């Protein structure tokens, strides 16, 4: 069983930056693929970024490419999402997720564990 706890969300002006963190419990974090998803009010949860267990494979939602960076520190059992040049349309609850397959997948169904989410609000 893996527990995921997100932090780092908040209110920021457009053009600003935030770094989200996701701390994981459990001994096998280094074998999990990790992803970030987000859900805006009235919308479905969507993929944002993912990283494979080794960190070699990264994937991003097209609209965040060049602005967001996903990374992981297996020693700290933590995955990060560095967000820059934030836009009001990035406003959402951001969720961290883990999958046992180890892949950096964009598909929600692949993920086995989810955090509770952290709110990111970008003002114009």
Structure description:
- By secondary structure, the chain is mainly β.
- Helices cover 0% and strands 48% of the residues.
- It has no helices and eleven strands.
- The strands form two sheets. Strands 2, 4, 5, 6, 9, 10 and 11 form a seven-stranded mixed β-sheet that branches.
- Strand 5 and strand 6 (58-60) form a beta hairpin.
- It starts with a strand and ends with a strand.
- 35% of the residues are buried.
- The mean pLDDT is 96.
Keywords:
124 residues, mainly beta, seven-stranded mixed sheet
Q: What Rg do the Cα atoms give?
A: 13 Å
Number of helices: 0
Cα-to-Cα separation, first versus last residue: 40 Å
Spell the H/E element sequence.
Answer: EEEEEEEEEEE
- Percent of residues in beta strands? over 45%
Global morphology: globular
The structure class reads mainly beta
Give the tally of β-strands. 11
Q: Would you tell me the overall average pLDDT?
A: 96
Low-confidence stretches: none
- State the helical fraction: under 10%
Main beta sheet: 7 strands, mixed
How would you briefly describe this protein structure?
With 124 residues, the chain is an all-beta fold.
List the topology elements.
Elements: E1 4-7, E2 10-13, E3 18-24, E4 33-39, E5 46-51, E6 58-60, E7 68-73, E8 78-83, E9 92-99, E10 113-114, E11 118-123
Parallel strand pairs: 2-11
Antiparallel strand pairs: 1-3, 3-8, 4-5, 4-9, 5-6, 7-8, 9-10, 9-11
């Amino acid at each position: 069983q893996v527990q995921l706890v997100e932090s780092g969300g908040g209110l920021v002006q457009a053009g600003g930056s935030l770094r989200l963190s996701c701390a994981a419990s459990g001994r096998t974090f280094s074998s999990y693929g990790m992803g970030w998803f987000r859900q805006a009010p009235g919308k479905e949860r969507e993929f944002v970024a993912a990283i494979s267990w080794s960190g070699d494979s990264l994937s991003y939602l097209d609209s965040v490419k060049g602005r967001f960076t996903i990374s992981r520190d297996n020693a700290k059992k933590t995955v990060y999402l560095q967000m820059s040049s934030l836009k009001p349309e990035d406003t959402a609850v951001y969720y961290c997720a883990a999958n046992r397959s180890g892949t950096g997948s964009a598909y929600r169904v692949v993920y086995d564990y989810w955090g509770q989410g952290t709110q990111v609000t970008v003002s114009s």
